[in-house]
Amino acid sequence: MAKIPEATLNSGHKIPLLGLGTAVEPRPPSELVTSIILTAIEVGYRHFDTAAAYETERPLGAAIAEALRRGLVKSREELFITSKLWCRDGHPDLVLPALQKTLENLGLEYVDLYLIHWPVSLKKASQGPSIRKEDILVMDVKSVWEVMEECSKLGLAKSIGVSNFTCKKLQDLLAAARIPPAVNQVEMNTGWQQKKLMGFCKEKGIHVSAWSPLGANGALWGSLNVMGSSVLKEIAEAKGKSVAQVALRWLHQQGVSIVVKSFNEKRMEENMEIFDWELTEDEVKKIGESPQGRGFSGDVFVSPLGPFKTVEDLWDGEV
């Protein structure tokens, strides 16, 4: 079983550079999610990414308990668990209770990484993970982050970070933070390479984690910029690899961690087979010239009544 390499975060903790995401719509039955995660642990995955909004914390927790019972992992410390603060809980007084609920769902004493899911708050009375335009509020990021820092000091989260933050939003946060974010988890793939953000995060010592690494061509969002790329297909054929493997290897060579989302055991194994070969400088250059576009516009957070009136506002012009 191949061991997934790790990177050291600015918090001093290590993050596996390949993890399994659990955001699926529609969500499978909990028992199936638990079974899939156990399969992933058997295959060799040790990083699992969940969130309050995904409603997969409980089945992930059940899988962790079962993996320990079966001896698939020797201890909790072998696993790296990421979860996220949902927008409804994006208020200073709700951050700690939200994390405590997450830990209860997972059956754990701590998470390895806790992220602010989006730089947006929702009214406290809003229901479920759905987003109504009239519920969107400005997030008091400074105050929310202060409580995230407290969660870290209490040992409830080994590392803290953000998700879907732009360079500007990170700059504003860094100006107020006592503990800098360890991670910024963002949409990133060969079709949306985030070059400006990557440069900024590298300069500031913030690790970038990539969601939607294969473009997530779903019914509601996504694109064929990755899996439909003629450049990736040409390189894959020349190397005897799959298009997905070339796309994931490109991300790995950018120094980011990758959150893949395949519940198929064969693909899980295939996605792990990206660490013992390399793309050449010429191949990286060709991929770097790929057409660019976001798969997820974020328009769900755009509202004439909210903090972001346009998609450009949400992404601070990084569109």
Beta strand count? 12
C-alpha-based Rg, rounded? 19 Å
Helix content: 25-40%
How many DSSP helices? 11
Query: Could you tell me the mean pLDDT?
Result: 95
| Low confidence ranges | none
Q: How many angstroms separate the termini? A: 40 Å
- The portion of residues forming beta strands comes to 15-25%
Strand order of the largest sheet: 3-4-5-6-9-10-11-12
The helix/strand class is alpha/beta
Shape: globular
Can you write the helix and strand succession as a string? EEEHEHEHEEEHEHEHEHHEHHH
Largest sheet, described in full? 8 strands, parallel, barrel
Description of the structure:
This protein is an alpha/beta fold and 319 residues long. 37% of the residues lie in helices and 16% in strands. The chain contains 11 helices and 12 strands. It has helices at residues 30-43, 57-70, 92-106, 141-153, 167-176, 195-204, 230-239, 243-253, 265-272, 281-288, 311-314; strands at 6-8, 14-16, 18-21, 47-49, 80-85, 111-116, 121-122, 136-137, 157-163, 183-187, 207-211, 257-260. Strands 3-4-5-6-9-10-11-12 form an 8-stranded parallel beta barrel, surrounded by 5 helices. A two-stranded antiparallel sheet has the order 1-2. A two-stranded antiparallel ribbon has the order 7-8. β9, α5 and β10 (183-187) form a beta-alpha-beta unit. α1 crosses α2 and α3 (92-106) packs across α4. The longest helix is centred in the N-terminal third of the chain and has 15 residues, at 92-106.
